[in-house]
Description:
heterodimer; A: alpha+beta; S-adenosylmethionine decarboxylase; 44% helix; B: alpha+beta; two-stranded antiparallel sheet; 15 strands; disordered N terminus; CENP-L (chain B); Centromere protein L (chain B)
Amino acid sequence: MDNSAKHLLQRLVRRIPVSMLKSTLDKWERLTAEKRKSLDFTQSKWIITQELVALYITENPNQGMWHTFQLVEPEDDAHSVELMQFKELFKSHLRELQRNVSVKIKKHTDQAVWIRVAWGDGLSSPNHLKATYVVLYLQTPYVFVNALSSKHKPLLLQALTLSTRHQQIKAANLSGQKLTALRDLLMRQYQQVKLRVEKVQAEASANRHRMARETFGDGMLPALQSAVFKLETKFKGPTNEAMTQRDEPFICSVKFSSSNLLESLRHCASSGIASTPVTPMLSSIPLKGRNYFVITDNVLTA
Amino acid sequence: HSGVVKRRSKSQSYRRSIRTCFGVASGLGLTPALTARRMNTSRKAPRSQNITEKVKPEHLELLVKTEWQLSYVTPLYQFRHTQLKSYSRQLSAFIAAEKQEGLAVEVGGLQNTFKVSFSVLQGLAETSDDPETVLIQVQSKPMFARQEDPPKTVWCGWLSCINGNPEYLQSLPKDFTCLPLFCSKGAEDLSSLVKSWLQRTFDCCFGPLDINQTTLQWLAALWTNCHMETNIQNLKMIWTLPVLPPLQVTYTVDSDDVLDLWRSTRESSAEKSREAEDEVCIDFSEVTRFMQGLMSHFYRHFRVDLSAGELNQVSSALGSAKVNGKIKISSSRYLISIFSLLTECALLKMPI
Lengths: 302, 352
């Protein structure tokens, strides 16, 4: 919706008496019944106008110019960010960067999260007719942005990065008028990547299960409850030069205990907590029928 | 440079400290609207302090070598250190009344009388903002006991604030006394009664103080650091791995070797400026590197990733700490340091 259309709408809403506003919009038929129900006619006309514009834009997203951004370097918990958390984080981060903003976030039925940011500055209140629209899908790294001024760009991008638990965001070099086209293009690509990743993971999992069973056995396992390893080996740590250069052994002991140790270890192997193939240290327990070991540098490979 | 957004926030290290300190277990959100109360990312190494001059020997004996259950409590409204005798009488009466109501008290039979005594445990308050520690003891005497039979202490608890954040303490309205750390030992039902009375009398709130992963890691590093002054004998860590059935891994490292590892992780960051020798500061990143070193050595042998599990317990000759909020201090020399750390944890739980 361009500016002149917005202003026209604003003037029309102002002219039409409140009592007739609802029925007029019903007759207009440009908004779905559901959307019309969501309008609160007890609010001021100014607010109603803004909401109408917002509704119109979300119903007709293939307008204006959408720019795509990609979130990179996810933190460990980026994949588990869910809507409530994202909403809180985004709003608080953005408000920290710029006090006078109005943020509305809503999830649509197709999982798209629509954000409308109205920017105010100094003394003027946030202007929803000139709002920035952001669309993102929480489990993907893509963000689509419309009507973002260069002044507000760094603020919005920073808030998005932090609230989705990533370290950086970069321009994805994909822009266009049709949001749906941009989205479909990227989602399809993303789906393919996801499917490939899932396939690789499934194969790895099958391998792990097989190796776990080969090492520890199938079915019920004897209920061994503990195993002790006395380690008298030199320190092994990839990044610690001082310690790896040490001649003396790093004396420590490790005790594994469980109500059924072999089942626990088998589950470690099949779930990936223990890397496969299983180390001889652990496979020695079932293979040699022992649960007390003294490990020195000479015996490490045994 | 592909248009990467540089962080503008002026307190960048503040954000990083939140991230490193608030592990998954913490459940605290990343709302930047918090006050400056957050876990310190750097702290002074605990020094051996001889507190035998400051604290009465019978109090010290009470505090050390005992496993305490930790809770946090919000500031107490209109609590007066001068009214302790009155509080003793009131709480005794409350316990007696609850017993009459039929509330079963585990300890002893219904014939037992309970006597409560509130007293000041002097010598633990470190700064001028710390209120004095309050000790509560519940003694029980069977009804038909002989005169000369001494009453038995069946429950003991204390409220303290050691090296509490001065900004927070000073921000409290005048009528509030902040003693956020509550340590208790004894029958659970007596604990409930005492907390219940305190809650209704001083309009406060109790909650469990779990010792989270970050704090346990701090303790592992701090206790190892103490080996320079006091023999810790060994550093023992217990992890649980999320498999079926659950697998417990007890990893015990010889004290001299673990100290060497700790020293080596500190040396690699030796370039950072240090104040005078006595003010050695430890940064949480060193603690992380230390833990990673320990887990690496473990991984090289067993090819098991300990970080997939949860650290449940850390202990040494100086004490032990468990994730379910149980702490034991075995040496009075480090009591102040450890309880300062725990006070900090308790203050983080304050809802304001």
